[in-house]
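Risk register update: the risk that structure generation would not scale has been downgraded. Supporting records follow, first protein first.
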Amino acid sequence: MLVRRLLPAMQTEEALRVTKDVMERMEQAQQDLTEEVVKLAKANEQGIKQLERMENAISSIGKLLVLLDFDPTRDLDLLKKFRSQGFKS
């Protein structure tokens, strides 16, 4: 794995801990964020803002994962689309 060659073992272990933690939180959010919750949140200005922040975070994570796994023979159209949208952190 490329990351393991680039990072010392301690940093690699920390990266694995962080990714596992994020994965578990996202899986829990997937279970908690039901259709009913989203509909009710959209009925409130604060809920709309929270959903927008969530959407931006999910979009940024997805873009990062896709762009770091970029294969020009397979993903050129995706890269062009992402670049046209900009990258939000």
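Supporting record for the second protein:
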Amino acid sequence: MKVDRDLGTAATLAAGSWVYFVAVALGIARAAEIPLPTLALFFDGHLYLEIAKSFPLPYGPGSLDYTGYAGGYPAFAAAIRLVVPDSLASWGTVLLLASWIPAALCTGVFYTLCRQVGAPPLAGALLFVVANPRWVAVCATAHSEPLAMLFVLLTLLAYVRGRLVACAVWLTLAGFVRHPAVMLIVPLVADQLLRGERRRTLCWLALPLVGQALVHVYLTMRVPEFESAAHTLRLFWQPQLTWPFASFFAYGWDLNIPYDYFLSEVTLFFAVFYLVAIVVGFRPSERALWVFPMWVALNVLSHASLSGGTGVLVFTRLVILAWPAALLIVWRLVGPCLSVRMRVAAIAGCGLFATTFAVQYPALVVPWQSAFLDPALSERMHTLDHPEPRWIRFPRSGR
């Protein structure tokens, strides 16, 4: 009976967060003065759209500049397209659904994970939704992070339950959605070794690497001139490795961007928050859950070591997969000390700011990106539902 009640609560939270993300998306579209389906073209959505249209054999000749973007998210969009007829939803709506659905499911899984590790689950799940404004903005628009987050959360849930095979399968799927997700192998293997587990149990954790190798082989055979996903992404951004947070000090917060809208303050806050979570998470009393701070440390410090102002600009999005682990670490410590009234106030305050940020920040990006970054977007707006992919060869100096 208790299990049924927990499942009901998780399902309710998922449904509620789905409504919330859709409402935020509608707010963005209204603020940017564009139709809702067109919202799917912005950020990297137009790249994923063409990949989705290329299924069942994704990519192909002419798609070299798209191979740095994993196929898991567009594959999910293509699957939705098979179920939802054209008369009910355009390709833009389908791409947004492929972000909204896993984002909502993440809330239910995080609630379950909170219960598994002894954190206050209801307030924790609500904070997971609204306490990170960049997460809200990502979930409301066409991004691959929500689907990758769902698989990462299922990986962590399977791991703390001791289900290593399921853990390896979920992490493999996460890598198909966002390649950097496979870095989670490192803290999982390290934790297994610290526990003195046999080498045979670690063999399962090689499965995500096998998955990545198969993707590389497929792209090599399918796309002429393909070298690697990392090489393709360097067409758009060419960072070098430097000391962690060196770019933060080099560029400060003067990135000269026309659509900041508190992004600098959000970036500074979460840089500090993640560092606090790492320190707090490695307390000796939390030894059973050290996999969480190890994951946060690896994810955050590796992405904070990228050079250039772009690394600072996109930091909060690049490290978004560390968000649930960091929140769990801090919430396990702070949550039980807060009264119900304080929890409600925290959720309400975070929700108000996150909603405002998640609407205003993308609404400012839309006209800027349309005018300066992707001139081809204007054409895509008028041919959104063209059935075949239309690959673009971007300038070698960047997109």
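DSSP finds 20 helices and no strands in the chain. On this basis the risk owner (M.S.) recommends closing the item.
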